[in-house]
């Protein structure tokens, strides 16, 4: 039971840090629990924990970190418009609005309900829902 508790503590720490440093130790603790359940004494279970944690840390962590820092894939369609800037052509409020986005006119609504964005303001596209751009004021 102690091994499982140790694994949970390491896993919680990993979730909090997202650094893929504690995850190998959580996996090692789980394998230590398996070794303990298999009837091995404490010393072999500790060795299983140390060896597993060390191997995962040396071989798996670099791969995981590389994947964490790879650039996102190419965005296409409306997903490519998220994060872009637009200019308000007709007042944007909860009922209506028009913005010029990437050379085209889009219907728009404020991202935050109740906001009113006046004509001429530069806005940031937060999300695209159907054919409507949800925007926030940058000025």
Short characterization:
The protein has 139 residues and is an alpha+beta fold. Helices cover 42% and strands 22% of the residues.
What does this protein look like?
The structure is a single chain. This protein is of the alpha+beta class and 139 residues long. The protein folds into 2 domains: 2-68, no CATH class; 77-137, Nucleic acid-binding proteins (OB fold (Dihydrolipoamide Acetyltransferase, E2P)). Helices cover 42% and strands 22% of the residues. It has 3 helices and 5 strands, in the order H-H-H-E-E-E-E-E. A hairpin with a 2-residue loop joins strand 2 and strand 3. Helix 1 (2-17) runs antiparallel to helix 2. It is elongated, with a radius of gyration of 26 Å.
Which terms would index this structure?
139 residues, alpha+beta, OB fold (Dihydrolipoamide Acetyltransferase, E2P), 5-stranded mixed barrel, 5 strands, 42% helix, elongated
The parts where pLDDT drops under 50 for at least 5 residues are none
Number of spatially distinct domains: 2
Radius of gyration (CA) equals: 26 Å
Number of strands: 5
Please count the helical segments.
3
Give the overall form.
elongated
Helix content: 40-55%
Strand content: 15-25%
What is the end-to-end distance?
A: 57 Å
Strand count, sense and barrel status of the largest sheet are:
5 strands, mixed, barrel
What is the string of SSEs from the N terminus onward?
HHHEEEEE
- What is the mean predicted local confidence, pLDDT? 91
Secondary-structure-derived class: alpha+beta
User: Taking strands numbered 1, 2, ... along the chain, how are they ordered across the largest sheet?
Assistant: 1-2-3-5-4
